[in-house]
Amino acid sequence: MQIEVNSDVFRLAQVFTISRGSRTQAEVLTVTVRDDGVVGRGECVPYARYDETLDSVTAQIAGFDGAWSDLPDALPAGAARNALDCAYWDHAAKRAGKRVWDLLGLPAPSPEITAFTLSLDTPDAMQVQAAKNAFRPLLKIKLGTPDDMARLEAVRRGAPDAQIIVDANEGWTADVYADLAPHLIRLGVRMVEQPLPAGADDMLAEIARPLPVCADESCHDRASLPGLMGKYDMVNIKLDKTGGLTEALALKEQAIKEGYGVMVGCMVGSSLAMAPATILAQGVAFTDLDGPLLLAEDRDQPLQFDDKGVHAPAAALWG
């Protein structure tokens, strides 16, 4: 099996800001596996929050010389293993002349309504963003500062009928969250994602959680689940955290078994990165696979988004 890795850059439609910083482009790695004329592809987004860079993840991928079954032991959960795992799934499907969901014994994915993310900005700018996207049924608001109340109010004014979820990206303290929680409920927020920093979130077990709290940075793979007990109500499963579709499906099954709600999320990447997650997103509480909607350019044969949601990928894209 030949393995190739290349970097690709996709321009964003506008500046995307979270509590940790801003970006104007998505920098991704594309992995290609080839064998007997059959080609499989996968994409990952190295993430600085997890001490990943384009160079470090490229080195991990280039250094892998085992079989698909060796991945869990050879590479940690993260971006490198994700791109390889998804490329192997694509390769297996193309070799078999079947779709990945057929190989997994699952029904063909149905469209799933996805959140559309409003990046962190001034209240006035976020109100404009919200009004522009008020037709979307689910908006995700990036927050994570001590001054978020005005932003919440502004988004609700801009999109009075949309469902709202919020993502603090570890930016709040326990006191800030406790102060904001009643207002989140008043404004109809359905869920809050990672309000406190991973590793400093024990207070979530001590304070009231009047609406569901979802673990993102605190949840990577199945090994994360014991540390979430009593603190979180949901988990956000992302392929770049789990290390690919294989572990993501196992994490979803285990999380549901342990009583957690499930959200399926993404990094800011192209349709190739989102495609495997459309299988994972079936039947979950919240889907957040809007990466391609944030781009000014995308892959050939991109994912289809419409009023029914995000659709399963065409075989020419992945799987």
Question: Looking at the structure, what is the overall shape?
Answer: globular
Low-confidence stretches: none
Secondary-structure element order, N to C: EEEHHHHEHEHEHEEEHHEHHEEE
Q: How much of the residues is beta strand, in percent?
A: 15-25%
State mean pLDDT (0 to 100 scale).
95
| Helix fraction by DSSP (H/I, runs of at least 4) | 25-40%
Q: Order of strands across the widest beta sheet?
A: 4-5-6-7-8-9-10-11
Task: Compute the number of helices.
Answer: 11
In terms of structural class, how would the helical and strand content be classed?
alpha/beta
Describe the model.
The protein has 319 residues and is of the alpha/beta class. 29% of the residues lie in helices and 23% in strands. The chain contains eleven helices and 13 strands. The strands form three sheets. It has an eight-stranded parallel sheet. The longest helix is centred in the N-terminal third of the chain and has 18 residues. The radius of gyration is 19 Å and the shape is globular. The two termini are 18 Å apart.
